[in-house]
């Protein structure tokens, strides 16, 4: 996996596959996925050709946020297995020529982590300062309504502050109250985290995906945020998104953990990162992280009102991608993804999960993967898995859905039906229904009762059927992965957006030396002709990939069709 840019840039030609272990495969029949289940399905991943597996958290956890609340960083939750099983998985992954990266969740711990238990024990605890403890707002009684130290709202609904009766102080939690934020200002915290990271690398893991890593540096003044009308809490982001010492912390982490080790990968998950900041985070000379994982392209269907579904405007989506491609053209690197465990299923969101499910899933895959950046496939995406048919709030399990519903309906007086319609379209549980392996009961995910209901469409949409069908989404993704491995223009080519004002077609070229690729995806069910300047030359170029049985007629695209052409240019 070495390329012309040196062994430490191997991840530019790699494809990452994300496993959400809880929903991947259950080997012991308790209804929740586990490491033994992952080991049992490595052939599926190797068959797809992916290079890196990213494992969502498998550490001991009270599972308040499905493992993103960690109570011990150096062990495996018994529900998932143990360290021996982990070592077996790591060895089996390496034996198949793939790498494995861990999820690193160090903006916060669980409130059941011994560090926090100690910190909470009293104001004189040696670990008191490892978290953000603050007295009530000036002149207000501890615990009184509105006495929280700032007016910030948590990502999961409610205040970011939890009141601790025993000491009369509050602790900060940007996510759930069971996820207290670590205080990175304290050098002991940082050293403890670095030591833990080295321990995993010494064990043989190949790097980390770093959860909300651009949230770790907070402005210690903790200023109030602006409070929009009609909302119960303010967005405090100005004080903790890409905060004052973030670059210092990430560079220090690089020096303490990654320096001198080869062929690793560090991915910074960074909600609220801008292109300019991303360039700083991923400039190799600055030694911070290898690539960012940003959110602009999955925010285009969100408006100022969080409880309204905004239909996708393709021109906006293209403008966002175009900005990122141009901004990181010379320096820096981005992740490319439609799906993860926090996003609804792309084929339901940006494609057509009914009549054109297969075509639109393939089109979305091709349009995404052939950009500059490292593509991510989220479990089930390679099968064209869809959103789930959730009906009422009782069908949801996600702490975010439940918390936001409670705040919107009970505190802000929103109509339950409005809130539910957004959760059905956008809720994170859409991505978390069990992986659909076959058409048997519970899709072959478990022999027990799954922790979240399997999508009834598993009779038709499942891995066994997809692997057996050469025209499936799975085999199309396999070809996309192969194209990244074999065509240097996909990895290193210059990017040029075409037809930026077109509302149905997504078109661009990639050029490296004398090779040029043309990618056009039709984001509609209509037949659309691409009016390109050099149409005649392209019409006769080699057709590398398309998703319909009959090859297109000279740049005219059928419903949800995608075409990839390649030509050689004379210099
Ligand atoms: O998510 C970060 C994040 O920004 C989330 O708020 C996400 O964008 C949002 O939920 C989308 O609706 C990471 C993890 O990926 C997520 O699963 C965790 O819940 C969160 O951090 C806290 O660890």
Can you lay out the helices and strands and say which pair or pack?
Elements: E1 16-19, H1 35-40, H2 42-48, E2 52-55, H3 83-95, E3 99-104, H4 114-120, E4 133-134, E5 161-164, E6 169-172, H5 187-203, E7 207-210, H6 246-258, E8 265-269, H7 275-282, E9 291-293, H8 314-327, E10 335-336, H9 346-349, H10 357-369, E11 374-378, H11 399-411, H12 416-426, H13 429-432, H14 463-468, H15 473-486, H16 488-492, E12 494-498, E13 505-512, E14 515-522, E15 528-529, H17 535-539, E16 542-546, E17 556-557, E18 562-568
Parallel strand pairs: 1-2, 1-11, 2-3, 3-7, 7-8, 8-9, 10-11
Antiparallel strand pairs: 4-6, 5-6, 12-13, 13-14, 14-18, 15-17, 16-18
The structure holds 1-O-alpha-D-glucopyranosyl-D-fructose.
Please explain how this structure is put together.
There is one protein chain. The chain contains 17 helices and 18 strands. Helices cover 28% and strands 14% of the residues. By secondary structure, it is an alpha/beta fold.
